[in-house]
Amino acid sequence: MTELEFSEPASSSSRALRAVGWTSVALGITALGLYIGHELRVRYKFKHRTPSDFYSHAGEELSADYGMGI
């Protein structure tokens, strides 16, 4: 047997492992980017608060209709 016959299976498994490795690296970078983006957005929203944000119902879309009961 020649050296070429032994290197083919190792080459295909190495190629598969390399593809899995690069895929995991890409997923890790994506997750890190999403996390950093979320943190930056939270900090931006926190720094751009309005005085009405300090009240408990600020920004609540549902209004309480008092006096409309049965």
Annotate the secondary structure layout.
Elements lengths: L2 H45 L23
How would you describe what is shown here?
The protein is mostly helical. It has one helix at 3-47. The longest helix is centred in the middle third of the chain and has 45 residues, at 3-47.
Q: Would you list the SSEs in sequence order as H and E?
A: H
Uncertain ranges:
none
**Mean pLDDT value:** 79
The count of DSSP E runs of length 2 or more, i.e. the number of strands, is 0
How far do the termini sit from each other?
Answer: 92 Å
Q: Percent of residues in helical segments?
A: 55-70%
Main β-sheet description = none
What percentage of the residues does DSSP assign to strands (E)?
Answer: under 5%
Judged by helices, strands and strand pairing, the structural class is mainly alpha
> Tell me, what's the shape?
elongated
Please state the CA-atom Rg, rounded to the nearest Å: 28 Å
Distinct helical segment count: 1
List keywords for this structure.
single chain; 70 residues; mainly alpha; 1 helix; elongated
Short description:
The protein is mainly alpha-helical. It has one helix at about 5-45. The longest helix has about 45 residues, at about 5-45.
